[in-house]
From TrEMBL:
<keyword id="KW-0408">Iron</keyword>
<dbReference type="Pfam" id="PF06397">
    <property type="entry name" value="Desulfoferrod_N"/>
</dbReference>
<keyword id="KW-0813">Transport</keyword>
<keyword id="KW-0249">Electron transport</keyword>
<dbReference type="InterPro" id="IPR038094">
    <property type="entry name" value="Desulfoferrodoxin_N_sf"/>
</dbReference>
<protein>
    <recommendedName>
        <fullName>Desulfoferrodoxin N-terminal domain-containing protein</fullName>
    </recommendedName>
</protein>
<dbReference type="GO" id="GO:0005506">
    <property type="term" value="F:iron ion binding"/>
</dbReference>
<feature type="domain" description="Desulfoferrodoxin N-terminal">
    <location>
        <begin position="5"/>
        <end position="38"/>
    </location>
</feature>
<feature type="binding site">
    <location>
        <position position="31"/>
    </location>
    <ligand>
        <name>Fe cation</name>
    </ligand>
</feature>
<feature type="binding site">
    <location>
        <position position="15"/>
    </location>
    <ligand>
        <name>Fe cation</name>
    </ligand>
</feature>
<dbReference type="InterPro" id="IPR012002">
    <property type="entry name" value="Desulforedoxin"/>
</dbReference>
<dbReference type="InterPro" id="IPR004462">
    <property type="entry name" value="Desulfoferrodoxin_N"/>
</dbReference>
<feature type="binding site">
    <location>
        <position position="32"/>
    </location>
    <ligand>
        <name>Fe cation</name>
    </ligand>
</feature>
<feature type="binding site">
    <location>
        <position position="12"/>
    </location>
    <ligand>
        <name>Fe cation</name>
    </ligand>
</feature>
<keyword id="KW-0479">Metal-binding</keyword>
């Protein structure tokens, strides 16, 4: 899923890492070889 706005939160279904977007640069967040899941 592409990052689209500041404040979005993503998590990794494999290891549980969580990321909060502070700067939008496009692209997809990846962790443990899989796309991260948007939570909010």
């Amino acid at each position: 899923m592409a990052v689209t706005k500041i404040g979005e939160k993503y998590y990794c279904a494999v290891c549980g890492n969580e990321v909060a977007v502070t700067k939008v640069g496009g692209g997809t967040l990846v962790c443990c070889g899989q796309a991260m899941i948007l939570t909010t």
